[in-house]
Design brief:
The protein has 226 residues and is α+β, with helices and mostly antiparallel strands. It has helices at 21-29, 41-52, 72-78, 125-151, 156-159, 177-187, 194-210, 212-220; strands at 11-18, 63-71, 85-88, 109-112, 119-122, 168-175. It has a four-stranded antiparallel sheet. It starts with 10 loop residues before the first strand and ends in a 6-residue tail after the last helix. The chain binds flavin-adenine dinucleotide. Flavin-adenine dinucleotide is lined by residues 80-83, 179, 182, 186, 191-192.
């Protein structure tokens, strides 16, 4: 039901999938005109071998379709992952709802260091509260300007230009396990922005539930995509 997706904050939903560990085994075994019906020890060994030797293509014969809602600044990082398909909410065609990201107090952080080796430290509580308030006031005033422009008759595609990147968007993302593991390697890493890392961890839990042996082999391989 469409209304179920209008949560005030973000989400990761597995909309549909065609994904299991056996597909990895059988797409490799077709080289020898062989096929397995069960995941026995030899099959598990084969998945580990393929992962370790970086024979990546057998991990492509599957598909995950996610429905995701996240702030635009997270989506921008997500859309950099070219191996996969995206369809996104259109702020040209639909009025944007009043839904904006505001950080948890514990996530308000300072940034020190140089590009490539930044470190992030929590702010003290009173500064974190002040920062959060500034972000929220900016969200509110930007949305008021947006509504004012719409009331004047300005086209949605232009009125949206006043909205900040904290605005929520939603999209469908269809991806295979090989590209998904690459996404997870990069976006669950400590070096990734904490805000996308939270979504990536949810994606990883779903991946693990659908392809547990592949997930385990990927962990053993240092979380590097084959
Ligand atoms: C911590 C972090 C910081 C980042 N900082 C920046 C930044 O400052 N500026 C910036 O612009 N981006 C930045 N990025 C984005 C980054 O450069 C990648 O665009 C993004 O992570 C997608 O990775 P990918 O290309 O491996 O994924 P995908 O696009 O999904 O590609 C998957 C794999 O397919 C192959 N592939 C895909 N397209 C090509 C191609 N055209 N040619 C050859 N091989 C291809 C590669 O093997 C690739 O690893 C950052 C990413 C991270 C994780």
């Amino acid at each position: 039901v469409e209304d179920d997706f209008n949560f005030a904050s973000g989400f990761v939903i597995l909309d549909s999938s065609m994904a299991d560990d056996l597909s990895v085994v059988n797409s490799a075994r077709v080289s020898f005109a062989k096929r397995s019906e069960t995941l026995d020890q030899a099959a598990i060994g084969l998945i580990n071998f393929l992962m370790r030797e970086r024979h990546g293509t057998p991990f492509e014969h599957n598909s995950f379709r996610f429905h995701i809602k996240c702030p635009i600044f997270v989506a921008r990082e997500w859309f950099r992952h070219r191996i996969g398909s995206f369809n996104e909410f259109s702020a040209r065609y639909s009025e944007v709802p009043n839904e904006f990201f505001s950080p948890l107090l514990e996530d308000v952080r300072k940034q020190t260091g140089k590009p490539g080796s930044y470190t992030f430290e929590k702010m003290n509580l009173s500064d974190a509260e002040k920062a959060k308030k500034i972000i929220e006031e900016n969200n509110t005033s930007a949305y008021e300007s947006y509504l004012e422009l719409l009331e004047m008759g300005v086209a949605k595609e232009l009125a949206r230009s006043v909205l900040p990147v904290s605005m929520y968007t939603q999209f469908y993302w269809t991806v295979n396990a090989r590209a998904l593991m690459n996404f997870l390697s990069l976006r669950t890493a400590e070096s990734a922005q904490v805000d996308i890392r939270k979504y990536a961890k949810d994606v990883e839990r779903i991946f693990e539930s659908q392809m547990p042996i592949t997930h385990e082999a990927w962990i053993k391989n240092g979380r590097i995509a084959p």
